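Ticket #4471: structure output looks truncated?

Reporter: J.K.
Steps to reproduce: submitted the chain below (95 residues) through the standard prediction queue, then opened the result file.
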Amino acid sequence: MFYAKDINNNRVLPTKEIQAWCFGCNSLMIAKMGVIMIHHWAHITKKECDTWMENEGEWHLEWKKRYIDIIDNVVIERFIKKENVWHFADIYLEK
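Returned output as attached by the reporter:
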């Protein structure tokens, strides 16, 4: 995930200086900031947040990142309610 929430519920990018939580399951996240993959947040525990959610590799993260620059009113990573269950959407259009 690119974004997690800080103590004030703000969307934050990965950083080692703060604690952050998942928007979906509220579990503590860890900033992954190595030299090979794009910096991202990961769940610390193996708890499943959304049964539809998949692991994100380099290609997946790069794909989401591209939409930030090419589409207006796009939200990268948002939890939405579908059939009375919360799910993680990689790309969400405000419209």
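Triage note (M.O.): checked the attachment and the full token line is present. Strands lie at 4-5, 11-12, 20-21, 28-32, 40-43, 74-82, 85-93.
Status: closed, working as intended.
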